[in-house]
Here is the input.
Amino acid sequence: MALSWKARRRWALVVLVVGLPVYIIAVVTVLNMIGRPGLLVELLVYVGLGIAWILPFKKLFLGIGQPDPEAGKTPGGKQDRGRDKDEAG
Here is the structure.
């Protein structure tokens, strides 16, 4: 079952606010437990893991920066233009 745009947006926020800090803490803890490797190796590990964390969530983040595609649609599938400026008041 595909998530709605609104649900994807909420889950993306949870991943960024909760999941990413937990992931960062876990990576730093594991690297400290195995001992600090050389500076270049450590940099490569952090860059690699910094990119790798997003791969499972790629579909979750696609399109959430865009306006809601379902907003403004009427049940018949036509775009609802809303009220014109002249009609407002």
Q: What stands out?
A: Residues 5-61 form one domain. Residues 72 and 80 are 5 Å apart (CA to CA). The helical segments are 5-33, 39-52, 58-61. Residues 5-33 form the longest helix (29 residues).
